[in-house]
Design goal:
The protein is an alpha+beta fold. The chain has four helices and three strands, in the order αβββααα. It binds zinc ion.
């Protein structure tokens, strides 16, 4: 079950990041060997996808919740449903582990 759990969370994280990028209109660019993101809504520059995610959760909660909700749907479709133990509330928070 640990394996499925990892797969689920990975799939969810990827799907959420993808939706988030789209909803925020975020663009990635490399500078000085690091990846940065520019938030398309407020222009804020963020280092790393994690930072973009946290930024969205704090500054653009509507878009963030939307991205999390869409990611859940995508993962549910892909895995043919979500197990009861998949903690949606936890997965939808930027503090989610991974
Ligand atoms: Zn922003």
């Amino acid at each position: 079950m640990a394996r499925l759990r990892d797969d689920l969370f990975r799939a969810f994280r990827l799907a959420k990041a993808e939706e988030l990028r789209r909803l925020l209109g975020a663009e990635a660019y490399a500078r000085a060997g690091a990846w940065y993101w520019r938030c398309g809504l407020c222009g804020r520059r963020l280092r790393g996808l994690r930072a973009l995610e946290r930024h969205a959760a704090v500054k653009h909660p509507r878009e963030y919740r939307e991205a999390a909700a869409r990611a859940l749907v995508a993962v549910r479709l892909r895995f043919g449903g979500l197990p009861r133990w998949f903690p949606e509330a936890h997965a939808a928070s930027p503090a989610g582990r991974g």
